[in-house]
Amino acid sequence: MDERDTRDPLRDLEQRLDRARRGQEREASGASPEDGPSVSRSGLGLALRIGLELVVAVVVATAIGWAFDNWLGTRPWGMIVFFFLGVGAGMVNVWRAVTGMGMAMGYRQEPPATERRKDADWSDDED
């Protein structure tokens, strides 16, 4: 048996890592022609997420208001107040999802170079 015939696990790992890196570079550079359906699926996913977040916020808040009404005996007022709080919370969630503010804590994307002011230093944190 020739030593070139044996499988080298490190070489296999290196090949898999290279394929994964190429895939990440392709995703970071934008959508390629073969990515057509995945782009439309991500848009559909965002639309479903936005709709669900708005509806769920209103339903949960209204249920909490109904529970408070039954507990405190203030029949329609708790449900009305919590309904509007749910609408507000749902709109905030939709706004965060659309603008990308639902990212991890402490992560802030820098604006593109075309939108930066020359006198602004985006690396400073002025907390």
Task: Give an overview in words.
This protein is mainly α and 127 residues long. It has a domain at 60-99. Helix content is 64%, strand content 0%. The chain has 3 helices and no strands. The chain has helices spanning 9-29, 36-72, 77-99. Helix 2 runs antiparallel to helix 3 (77-99).
Please write out the topology:
Layout: H1 9-29, H2 36-72, H3 77-99
Task: Give a nutshell description of this structure.
By secondary structure, the chain is mainly α. It is built from three helices and no strands.
Gyration radius (Cα, Å) is 25 Å
Give the count of helical stretches. Answer: 3
Major sheet: size, sense and barrel closure?
none
User: How many E strands?
Assistant: 0
Please trace the helix and strand order, writing H or E for each element: HHH
Q: Assign an overall shape.
A: elongated
Low confidence ranges? none
**Which structural class best describes the helix and strand composition?**
mainly alpha
How helix-rich are the residues, as a percent range? Answer: 55-70%
The end-to-end distance, rounded to whole angstroms, is 67 Å
Mean residue pLDDT: 79
Q: Approximately what portion of the residues adopt beta-strand conformation?
A: under 5%
Keyword list:
about 130 residues, mainly alpha
